[in-house]
Amino acid sequence: MSDGGVMNTETFLCRAADVPDGGALKIERAGRPPLAVFNVGGRFFVTDDTCTHGEASLSEGEIDADECVVECPWHSGAFDLATGKPCGAPCTIALKIHAFECRDGALYLLG
Ligand code: FES
């Protein structure tokens, strides 16, 4: 459905309540790489789920709430959740972060 010729491209990700504080939720997408939604003390972050060093699922990683970092479950590489920058070896390639909107208790991917 278009709105004055502008396509609405937001995509429902999950309900905020589905992501526990200090946890993450993997979002599978048909034909596209999975995403991870992180909840760090009520702040949400949406990133690619797959580590840039290997095929590990970052939604299964350890979250350091103080540093706002996720540690990969495979080789303990780490990423800053706010920027996607690698901050722990062996990761050197940035993680893609995604813009989203939180509305009425639900998260929507933008773009
Ligand atoms: S797969 Fe993530 S650090 Fe190696």
From TrEMBL:
Domain of life: Bacteria
Keywords, alphabetical: 2Fe-2S, Iron, Iron-sulfur, Metal-binding
Stored PROSITE patterns: RIESKE
Pfam families the UniProt entry points to: Rieske
SUPFAM superfamilies the record matches: ISP domain
Positions of the Rieske domain: 11-109
A molecular function (GO) term: metal ion binding
PANTHER family the record matches: 3-PHENYLPROPIONATE_CINNAMIC ACID DIOXYGENASE FERREDOXIN SUBUNIT, FERREDOXIN-RELATED
Protein name as it appears in the record: (2Fe-2S)-binding protein
Organism: Zavarzinia aquatilis
